[in-house]
Amino acid sequence: MSTVSLWNLALSPNKRICLSPLSWRPSFPSHAMFPRRQNTKTVVVLVRMLDSKPTVLVAEKLGDAGIQLLKTFANVDCSYNLSPEELCTKISLCDALIVRSGTKVTREVFESSMGRLKVVGRAGVGIDNVDLSAATEHGCLVVNAPTANTIAAAEHGIALLTAMARNVSQADASMKAGKWQRNKYVGVSLVGKTLAVMGFGKVGSEVARRAKGLGMNVIAHDPYAPADRARAVGVELVNFEEALLTADFISMHMPLTPATSKMFNDEAFSRVKRGVRIVNVARGGVIDEEALLRALDSGIVAQAALDVFTEEPPPKENKLVRHENVTVTPHLGASTTEAQEVVALEIAEAVVGALKGELAATAVNAPMVPPQVMSELAPFVSLTEKLGRLALQLVAGGSGVKFVKVTYASARGRDDLDTRLLRAMITKGLIEPISSVFVNLVNADFTAKQRGLRLTEERIVLDGSPENPLEFIQVQIANVESKFASAISESGEITVEGRVKDGKPHLTKVGSFDVDVSLEGGLILCRQIDQPGIIGSVGSILGEENVNVNFMSVGRIAPRKQAVMTIGVDEEPSRDALKKIGEIPAVEEFVFLKL
Length: 595
Ligand SMILES: NC(=O)C1=CN([C@@H]2O[C@H](COP(=O)(O)OP(=O)(O)OC[C@H]3O[C@@H](n4cnc5c(N)ncnc54)[C@H](O)[C@@H]3O)[C@@H](O)[C@H]2O)C=CC1
Ligand SMILES: O=C(O)C(=O)COP(=O)(O)O
Known about the structure:
One of its GO terms (biological process) is L-serine biosynthetic process. Its EC number is 1.1.1.95. Pathway: Amino-acid biosynthesis; L-serine biosynthesis; L-serine from 3-phospho-D-glycerate: step 1/3. InterPro entries: ACT-like_dom_sf (IPR045865), ACT_dom (IPR002912), ASB_dom_sf (IPR029009), D-isomer_2_OHA_DH_cat_dom (IPR006139), D-isomer_DH_CS (IPR029753), D-isomer_DH_CS1 (IPR029752), D-isomer_DH_NAD-bd (IPR006140), NAD(P)-bd_dom_sf (IPR036291). GO terms for molecular function: NAD binding; phosphoglycerate dehydrogenase activity. By secondary structure, the chain is α/β, with parallel strands linked by helices. The protein has 4 domains: 55-144 and 341-356, NAD(P)-binding Rossmann-like Domain (Rossmann fold); 148-328, Rossmann fold (3-Layer(aba) Sandwich); 370-510, CATH 3.30.1330.90; 520-594, Alpha-Beta Plaits. The protein is 33% helix and 22% strand. It is built from 21 helices and 24 strands. A 7-stranded parallel β-sheet has the order 10-9-8-11-12-13-14, with helices on both faces. Strands 16-15-17-18-19-20 form a 6-stranded mixed β-sheet, covered by helices on one side. It has a 5-stranded parallel β-sheet with strand order 4-3-5-6-7. Helix 7 (132-137) links the parallel strand 6 (119-122) and strand 7 (141-144). The longest helix is centred in the middle third of the chain and has 23 residues, at 371-393. The protein is elongated. 2-oxo-3-(phosphonooxy)propanoic acid (HPV) is lined by residues 100-102, 123-126, 149, 331, 333-335.
């Protein structure tokens, strides 16, 4: 397989949609197959069924180049200003959703999509308007366009900084009102002043660079920023306290997270230099707006320039917006013609790629697996899912699966093998057959945790050539009984082991018995006393039923002792045939497993 599809590998064929890297192949929701109402509704549904393209809902203004790119692959529905209810109604007909900062993609949106929504594209950086936990729980990938508007946001930060310092917007409003107030609007200089950049990421560091060009002394507070990045810009990293104590200007550039929410509150304002000036192009929520108002009224904060607000648009009577010492813009940080063109293209590419099943370089809620790793692991992806399914079917009814150990044997070094994808597929094999959730790379760990499944991983480092990423993979389920006692290894766990042979997944061990059967179709596992004629007896029972045997192997402890026979079959044998196999005198136990 040259191109590997994340979704193809990750979605089971009986789930609602199935994506291929080459073409879009929808399968249909049950309500589309069985429309309750007739006439016009039926026609609409049938048209939808015949339409092979996915549907992308663009819920906020997106640059034209992005829309055109989306149209080459999908039906594009540009519906702006939807109410939350309208969004929830529409979403069940959409495979992807593209938003900016003005749309709240809540848990209700994911629930309303009933599993159809596969990708949310955030045409910008901040993803605080997307409920990431809900997206992950629903297996929905979230992608953003993290770099395209960096310069626009930084330039807007500088625009607000300079406009605020020189009272540009107030003076402009005054002149438009027919006044000429030269004394009232005397500003402050920037040169030689200390600017504290809070959040030294992409935007923060560009603001710092520009502020240095204006002759400012720039410090930054960011607990996660590498020191060399700060050194490269000539900025000193300081702690929160020091930033508050020394700054003449403070500029916000951190994301809105539980840790940064209301980071600037009464307590913080009680420690700043009196007369500090504040710029916020990050998110309204990083400042306690009531506290800022108090600080402005008491003169602790001399001025503020705000592009973002806790509630957007802010209510008409918002006192901060109307405050004389506050300069405001309606969330314009990313809004330049240039930035929006690139943002639109970036997000359209990311969404189309994700719908095709390609890896998203800007995935926000999924581990990144580089394409070469993905393609190398492709045959093992199939093997791991099948081993998970087999191990699960070997568990006796009533035994809950809680403890699963996966062992990867490879000649590669420990850090040279990325097993996240394989772990996700084992989880899929263990969970999907017994639940209604679909499991993919996005939600596998979450789903396992939620169901109380503890999956531990172990590595065996083998000698030999590291060319092949893996020699074998073993899946063990502990603390359960098996419906096929021979599947329990000497150490007491249900054990199945497999390898990839000629690009195809093979089962190579069950319990303590070596076997060898290609993992396709169905599988009969049968333990018997090793003696002549057994293979023939089983073969003829299956032959009478027209069940095609595609593979057969016998693993035995010693001649004429116990043996485990594995028989790969293309069709599922009838109950009667299975009963007849069980009645062969030498057969001690057997089980039929579906792959
Ligand atoms: N007004 C607008 O139109 C725009 C606003 N933004 C906002 O700016 C934010 C930053 O964007 P980028 O620089 O591209 O993101 P980024 O991820 O490159 O930078 C964010 C930085 O904040 C730091 N940070 C995290 N927690 C922190 C904390 N508790 N204290 C201090 N620093 C902390 C991170 O370590 C990181 O270095 C976005 O999250 C978004 O909310 C971004 C673009 C446009
Ligand atoms: O990219 C961001 O984080 C922004 O805040 C830009 O928001 P917007 O896309 O202009 O609604």
